[in-house]
Amino acid sequence: MIEAIQNFLFRNSRLQATLTSVGKPFTGAIKGVGSFVFFTLETVQWFFRGKFHVRVLFREMVKIGVNSTFIIALVGLFSGMVFALQTASGFRLINAESLVGSTVGVALARELAPVFTALMIVARAGSSIAAEIGTMTVTEQVDALKSMAVHPINYLVVPRVLATTLMMPLLVGIFNGLGLFGAYIVSIYLLEIPEGPYMMHYHKVMEPQDFFQGLIKGVVFGVIVSLIACYKGYHTNNGAEGVGRSTTQAVVAGSVTVLVLNYFLTTWLLQLFP
Amino acid sequence: MRKKFSTEAKVGVFVILAIALLAYITVDVSQLGWTPGGTYKIYTLMDNAEGVTVKTPVQVAGIPVGTVSGIALTPDRKARVEIELRKDVKLGDDVTAEIRTRGVLGDTYIELFPGRADAQEIAPGGVVGRVKQPADYQQLVRDLSVMTADMKEVTAALKTYTVSEHSYTAEILKSTQVLTANLATFTNTNAANMNAIVNNMRILTDQLRGFSQNSTPEIEASLKRIAEITEKVNSGQGTVGKLLNDPQTAEKTNELLDNINGLTEGIRRIETEVNYHMEYLGSTKDVKNYVGLRFQPRPDKFFLFEVVHDPAPSPSKSTQITSVTTSGGATSTITTETEDFHKVRFSAELGKKFHDVTVRGGLIESTGGFGIDYTKGPVAVQFSAFDFGADRPHLKLLSQLNVTRSLFLVGGLDDFINPQHGLDWFMGAGVRFTDEDIKSLLGTASLAK
Amino acid sequence: MNPSSSAVIQMKDLRKSFGTQKVMDGLDLEIPRGKITVIIGRSGEGKSVLLKTMIGLIFPDSGKVLIEGTDMLELSGQGQNEMRKKFGMLFQNAALFDSMNVFDNVAFPLRQHSHLEEDEIEVKVLDKLAKVGLKNVGHKMPSELSGGMRKRVGLARALMLDPEIILYDEPTTGLDPILTDSIDNLILETQKSFGLTSVIVSHDIRSTIKMADKIAMLYEGRILSEGSPESFRESKDPRIQNFLQGKADKDFIG
């Protein structure tokens, strides 16, 4: 009898342990989301009330924006080129190759440019932000900032988020421009699609709001990607290994967020700009 | 310090380049782009603005000049379409708007038809008064389905008409029967008139016989002379005889025959016109009928033959007419019978045109006379003078208005200087057919068979 | 003497745990004004946590941290930031900003909190660097410096805003004895010349005895003992004696 009760309790406690271990990632994820929200609110608060670190902002604009120009231009150019190549092979089936320009144009402006740029920025700037802040956290540089009455969110996070947010739409624009150029080159000179109908359809279909949608997406992605990178860096522990983990997490979380958020943004923007 | 500057310079260059690129690709695709002159708005009310949205292109003569900047439903359930146009595009206030579609995808656009060049310019905020509703694809489909339904009905009806006992064919046959019956009745009831006509004919032949009996010796003399002439001709005497018996004559005759052939060719080219018109006489309240035949071998020449039926000829006229009948040379007494006969008179005139003026002369209503016509466009004024044997010549002033090629109206004054009665006015209408018309009528008729 | 009047920092009943590990378990400590207080204890006892709690880098689960009578924990983020201006802190590995050279590191607090011109900043920075015995290193990056030099730069940076309280987190750990001595001397000199309140976390007994006005020993989340170096030396508590003599606990071996 006693044995049976003990057995039951034992088994029950094991059951509880199992439940706890299963539930732990979930509670962890929920805590993480909550922590991220607080981090975001704190960033907004420091953005409005804190000191404005112009020099840091400029340095970050160079690091995030200017230094990404080449890679963004390159990726944009080849994205446009390959997309033109693929759409042309499809349109050729119905003898509508002249629609390549408008199709690539809309796809670039609305989806490819903001998403690809955001992914590139996640990979390039997001990882570096996470690594930098993470290193500063584990080497007590963040604490040192605090000890010198400089709040790290004000000094580290706000300029990086702001710089990314300001640079993203411009990078999206560069991606877009180079993508259109790449598509044009491939279509007109490689595939020898007649330029007149190509440009005619392009001008007929494209509207400034297409670019505007891309820019809005760029801004939103810029905010979210930089916040995630800063958050991951800021909450780094366990030394160098932790920095590596934070960097990876920043890239993964950033990319996934961009792709998922893009769906919802598209839905909302299609409501706004039918 | 140099480093700080270079940071700012880098950001500056980057931002300027990126914004320039963005601005270029954005302006490049703007429908209106950046219109330096600005824009203005006009409105149009449409019953159906299907397919029109904000940014729908607006064209004049196929050139994009603006876009639709707003659409709304008015309280009376019409579509109010606001159109934004480039300022340098000027349109008249009689501008017409039409919704059109193009391409397989049916892209909608609005075409503006600027209207007359001298129209007043439409002001900003003005309303496009005229709207052509589109013969759009949907409408086409609807129309087609309606038409199909109609055609089904027609076919069904035709079936019943031809098959059933109460069909059209049967009814037409019935109608024909009735018509024939009516004709029979008509001839029966008018038997008296017919008899009168036959009577008149007999009297005429009697007179002619009397005339020929009285002049038998002269005829005999004439016949003798003809015999003599023929004799002479045969023997080659006289000019005609010589001509006929001369071998050269044969050639000449051939030539002549050729000429005659040419002539007949010309005759074939003669324009023939059949006309009929009636005049209602204001004084006697009678209707005078005219049936005419007009030959026009050349544009400036014509010959007119006309039969006039006057149901109530004035007595004075009847005396005139007796004088005409005596023109054959025979002296005859005036009888009342002849009055009836003179209800029908003839005209035979030759005419020549000089520009708008036509001069004609000959037999007019069985008496000698002449006339001058003036024609200008559809209006013609004809003046005729005849029956000079009476106290006063018969003058007639007729004005004619050609309503169509075949239909015309007449009106005027008849015998207006005759003291026996007052101003005699008339009015009426008529029809006219040329041989071309007849040909085409016949053609149509034969086709209708 | 009322301790609260002489104490710059008072910590009352502090409790803090990371997960299941209790780092502070009802800790009470007062830091006297104008003195050097050395906190000793074994590695992992939470000495650094205690130091960071004083400046508000780590927040206890419960308890009070009074800085000149003001509860740090009840202040807003901005208020805490202002309060930290009273402090200077030298971190264990100096925590110099990797992205800046030595000059910019030392100038950082001035640039953040003063409106001085660059030439004035330069004068002050070179002065402070000279005080910690460094010359012609302004252009060097932290990675190019030795551990001792880094600590000196860190000290120069911590002293830049002329703080009332300076916190040293293991200033001599990982340095050779000669360097240790020079750092110790630097701390003492600083103490004398600036007349500030110093809190040192250390497990270097020799340095501690040499410099401390007051020693507090942290043991299992509480202050086991506090007093003058003499009182410590004469303590009968085996745990203190073991620590002072560098002997391992029996249970530690066991």
Question: Could you explain the architecture of this structure?
Answer:
The complex is a heterotrimer of chains A (274), B (449) and C (254). Chain A is mainly α and 274 residues long. Chain A has one domain (54-272). Chain A has nine helices and no strands. In chain A, helix 4 crosses helix 7 (195-205). The model of chain A has no long low-confidence stretch (mean pLDDT 87). Chain B is of the alpha+beta class and 449 residues long. Chain B contains ten helices and 18 strands. Chain B has helices spanning 2-29, 137-163, 168-189, 191-214, 216-235, 238-245, 247-268, 315-325, 336-341, 435-448; strands at 39-46, 57-60, 63-73, 79-86, 96-102, 107-113, 127-128, 130-132, 271-281, 287-298, 301-309, 344-354, 357-364, 367-376, 379-386, 394-402, 407-414, 424-434. In chain B, a hairpin with a 4-residue loop joins strand 5 and strand 6. In chain B, helix 5 (216-235) crosses helix 6 (238-245). Chain B starts with a helix and ends with a helix. Mean pLDDT of chain B is 73; it is low at 315-324, 334-341 and 444-449. With 254 residues, chain C is α/β, with parallel strands linked by helices. Chain C has one domain (3-246): Rossmann fold. In chain C, the strands form two sheets. In chain C, strands 6-7-8-3-9-10 form a six-stranded mixed beta sheet, with helices on both faces. The mean pLDDT of chain C is 83. Chains in contact: A-B, A-C. Chain A binds chain B through residues 55, 58-59, 61-62, 65-66, 69, 105, 169-171, 173-174, 176-177, 180, 202-203, 206-208, 210-212, 215, and chain B through 4, 7-8, 10-11, 13-15, 17-19, 21-22, 24-31, 55.
Level-1 CATH class name of the largest domain in chain B: Mainly Beta
Low-confidence stretches of chain B: 315-324, 334-341, 444-449
Q: Helical proportion of chain B?
A: 40-55%
Outline of chain B: elongated
